[in-house]
Amino acid sequence: MTAAFCVHCGQSLAGGEHLGCRVPRTALEPPRFCPQCARRMVVQVTPTGWDARCSRHGAYTSEPTG
Hints:
By secondary structure, this protein is mainly β. It has strands spanning 42-46, 49-54, 58-61. It has one domain (1-66). Strands 1-2-3 form a 3-stranded antiparallel β-sheet, with no helix packed on it. It starts with 41 loop residues before the first strand and ends in a 5-residue tail after the last strand. The mean pLDDT is 89. This is Biotin synthase auxiliary protein.
């Protein structure tokens, strides 16, 4: 499933410019909203990265997969 919502503000990617979400600093921030349903996620930041969990869609992590 493709992302339908902004992971920083939770608004639809189809609408709005998201100027505050596209500044270079946000590239370093963990996601706060689920990209599939826009629910607020539980986020834990560690020295080596971050883990985020959506109550409906499961976990996301900063670790590379594969």
